[in-house]
Amino acid sequence: MICPKCGKESNARFCPECGADMSSATEQPVYINPAQNTIPPVPQKAKVSGLSIGAFIVSFFGILGVVGVVLGIVDLAKKKSENPPKKHGLAIAAIAIGAVMFIIGLGSCGSKDKKPAETTSKSGAATTASETAVEESNTEETTAETTTTTTESGPNITLAADPSNMKVGEIGRSDDVYVGLSYVKRMTYLPTALGKETKIGKGNEVIMAFFDFYNHSDKTGSISPDNITCYADGVQVGNVETAIKVRCDGINQLHSAEIAGKTQMMSVQDFAVPKGWKELKFFYNSVCIWTVSQDDVKKDPFKFSTMFKDLDIKRTVVSEGTTIYNDDYEVVFQGVKDYTYKNKYSGNRQYVIFKFTVKNTGTSAIDYQLAGYSMNGYQNNYYLGTADYLLDGKIDGYINIYKVDSIEPGMTANIYVAFDGAAKGGNVFMVYDDGYIVNKERGVVYVER
Fold first, then answer.
1. Is residue 254 domain-shared with residue 351, that is, in the same domain?
2. Domain count across the chain
3. Which of 418, 261, 221 is nearest to 337 (CA)?
4. Which residue of 34, 79, 91, 196 pairs with 72 in a disulfide if CB–CB is 3.0 to 4.6 A?
5. CATH classification at residue 432
């Protein structure tokens, strides 16, 4: 403070120079340098560049990834002139990802361009340009090897001119599956494996439709006869309700099946239809449509005859004593036989029996109780179904596969796999698959008889 009397500067109550009271003194003004009166700016957090975000998103769109590359490069070029600065990590990622996606996109376009165009042969079967090229190349002689290779051409199947308006006896196609309506008959009851089901609804009659399927693919394919729907005079009709297996004129009703490549399947479907109908329409996968009139429906029993002739399917014959699988366990084929099962309820049933010896060559027990669920059998190339569990007795000293709980390490079990066969004799084919939910094909057996 400044003494009001003598001007002496002091912080005491009384001036040390003249003794005056300093209570009325004024404070000395403080002069602040304006240059030093600046508050340091609060650092701002760098934001992500909007352009880099856009580049990152676009970079994932296949061949358009090149746009992401361009936007990323532009974003990085603006980096030096930005105030405040922004983050550009996404731009770098966009350049890398966009380049990869662009290359992949080009490859995809190239493969689509090479997709063979489908043509129709004189027999009505669909073939591809690539199949024709393979056939031509396989007919050329080779000097490096003495063996020749042949491939199967398109099936010798005549397709209906209009698959949306077919008649009984005509064949349509849905992807790799060929399907034909072979026969239609009327009945006053529903035939089952245990007899007649007469509760069909007042004023109804039973229509039995026999469908023939062929899986032209080389791989196992799913076929669902349950996808077949029926309309009587434009109104959809349903099946006859029953908990018993439907069986008509030796043909079983199948709901869904996984059948091997180049194999066939026959299934009969039942429908409760009001009497006096004028027109029936059957739909399969909304692609194949058959129109049926009263004159097309028969009363006589169905006599099986394949709709797919001259398929020329070749398989390798497997002889008895052949090991079809040998990894953590060994499976040896021991033969095949026809077997008649006498049942007082359903009468005599014909079965095809495949016999095997299974040896556990591993270090832990293997469980075989559920193995039969994924095994499929075929007779004369037609699907018989999965392994049957009704046979519970021994056959030639072999046990039904469903009766084997487990096989201990180093031990052996003689098992048989039974399939419900339509008749005795004929060539038989079996896919040995020990999977339950997921297919685990171990080997195949084909026997000509």
1. no
2. 4
3. 418
4. 91
5. 2.60.40.1240
**HEC per residue, 370-403:** CHHHHCEEEECCEEEEECCCCCCCCECCEEEHHH
What's the pLDDT tens digit per position in 244-281?
999 999 899 999 998 999 999 999 999 999 999 999 99
Same domain, 342 and 241: no
CB-side neighbour CA atoms (13 Å) of 138: 12
Same domain, 267 and 369: no
pLDDT tens per residue, range 109-146? 544 444 433 333 333 333 333 333 333 334 333 333 33
Residue 165 lies in a domain: no
Residue 37 lies in a domain: no
In a domain, residue 12? The reply is yes
Q: Who's near 353: CB < 8 A, 6+ residues apart? A: 336, 337, 338, 339, 395, 398, 416, 417, 418
24 and 51 in a single domain? The answer is no
Helix (H, G, I), strand (E, B) or coil at 55: helix
Lowest average pLDDT, out of 112-116, 273-277, 306-310, 391-395, goes to 112-116
Q: Using N-to-C axis directions, what is the helix angle for 89-113 and 65-77, rounded to 10°?
A: 160
Residues 275 and 327 in one domain: no
Q: Is 35 a domain residue? A: no
Token pair 């398109």 in the structure block, residue: 154
Spatial contact of 401 and 346, defined as CB atoms under 8 Å apart: no
CA 102 to CA 64: how far, in whole Å?
A: 7
3-class secondary-structure state, position 100? helix
Query: How deeply is 43 buried, as exposed, middle or buried, from its count of CB atoms within 10 A (0-12, 13-18, 19+)?
Result: exposed
DSSP-derived secondary structure for 153-211: -S------S-TTSB-TT-EEEETTEEEEEEEEEEESSEEETTEEE----TTEEEEEEEE
- Tell me: do 8 and 82 sit in the same domain: no
Residue 104's domain comprises: 47-113
Asked if the peptide bond before residue 16 counts as cis, ω within 30 degrees of 0, the response is no
260 with 354, same domain? Answer: no
pTM of the shown model:
0.64
Q: Which two tokens stand for residue 447?
A: 């026997």
Tokens, residue 123 = 């027999």
